[in-house]
Amino acid sequence: xxxxxxxxxxxxxxxxxxxxxxxxxxxxxxxxxxxxxxxxxxxxxxxxxxxxxxxxxxxxxxxxxxxxxxxxxxxxxxxxxxxxxxxxxxxxxxxxxxxxxxxxxxxxxxxxx
Amino acid sequence: xxxxxxxxxxxxxxxxxxxxxxxxxxxxxxxxxxxxxxxxxxxxxxxxxxxxxxxxxxxxxxxxxxxxxxxxxxxxxxxxxxxxxxxxxxxxxxxxxxxxxxxxxxxxxxxxxx
Lengths: 113, 114
Fold this sequence. Notes:
- The complex is a heterodimer.
- Chain A has strands at about 5, 10-15, 20-25, 30-35, 45-50, 55, 65-70, 75-80, 85-95, 105, 110.
- By secondary structure, chain A is an all-beta fold.
- Helix content of chain A is about 0%, strand content about 50%.
- In chain A, strands 2, 4, 5, 6, 9, 10 and 11 form a 7-stranded mixed sheet that branches. A 4-stranded antiparallel sheet of chain A has the order 1-3-8-7, with no helix packed on it.
- Chain B is mostly beta strands.
- In chain B, strand 7 (about 65-70) and strand 8 form a beta hairpin.
- The N and C termini of chain B lie far apart (about 40 Å).
């Protein structure tokens, strides 16, 4: 059983640029969620995808967008990067039922300069 | 709306001592509750979860937590701390409704003294 893998592990971007982060879900998981974890904070929910459709969104602006593909892998896109976007971005996959729990990847550390 | 409050951003205990990490939640619907651990430069690993079955939940690495509805609490304990337990611990709440997102607390950094 493979876990959740995220790429890249680290990334440095310039303010105003765009970035794409990628996530491969755990085998058999059809739901993927993205979280932003700022330094010293708990993760904050960005959005969730279930079977390629957005299934909920947190308090993040539209420049944060996502995709889920037929194989349940996922992308997080952030446009017009701001300094405050610097954070660890975590992907979590699940079977779509909270009782099953969520499996997290190791994250992508994004630094915006 | 759901929320989680973790009392104490830093907890320090001696090796072999009891570990107690506090978590209180707020939820308008029956909650699912989770404890995750995060080691430096890593993602989150699930320690244990409460999903409306037994109120005393046993997890990995000797940790357990007790769901107390009257106190809206889900405190994490371990009888005897090991050096390897040093990490950041997050309590989270979810529900079976809506997007089933996890709402996390701010985290508690656990330090183990030799």
